[in-house]
């Protein structure tokens, strides 16, 4: 019995594959551009999360549930970005250790 929370769309691996195929078909975006767009998205979510926290602290929050969701989205996006960074660094180090 799965319910979708309003405003939060579930993300599956097929969604990521579709997005990757769209990027491949368009040929316009390269890895750097996709990474930059993702970082900008994480930045925007962080700003919204900080704004929601300040609204809660000052008592100006209109909908506590939406504020909590904004904070959670910001936290999860930051964790995902850090994991992607860690994987990229590990891959780079592995390439450096490879003997030619």
Structure commentary:
The protein is mainly alpha-helical. Helix content is 76%, strand content 0%. It contains three helices and no strands. The protein has helices at 13-26, 31-58, 64-97. Helix 2 packs antiparallel against helix 3. The longest helix has 34 residues, at 64-97. The chain is elongated.
Describe what is shown at a glance.
The protein is mostly helical and 100 residues long. Helices cover 76% and strands 0% of the residues. The radius of gyration is 18 Å and the shape is elongated.
Question: Keywords for this structure?
Answer:
100 residues, elongated
The fraction of residues assigned to DSSP E strands is under 5%
Which residues form runs of ≥5 with pLDDT under 50? none
Q: In this structure, how is the largest beta sheet organized?
A: none
- Inertia-based shape: elongated
What Rg is obtained from the alpha carbons, in whole angstroms? Answer: 18 Å
**Cα distance, first to last residue?**
53 Å
């Amino acid at each position: 019995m799965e319910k979708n929370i309003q405003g939060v769309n579930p993300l599956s691996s097929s969604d990521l594959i579709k997005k990757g195929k769209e990027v491949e078909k368009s040929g316009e975006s390269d890895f750097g551009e996709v990474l930059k767009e993702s970082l900008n998205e994480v930045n925007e979510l962080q700003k919204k999360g900080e704004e929601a926290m300040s609204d809660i602290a000052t008592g100006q929050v209109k909908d506590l549930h939406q504020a909590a969701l904004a904070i959670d989205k910001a936290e999860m996006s930051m964790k995902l970005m850090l994991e992607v960074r860690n994987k990229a660094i590990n891959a780079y180090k592995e390439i450096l250790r490879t003997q030619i």
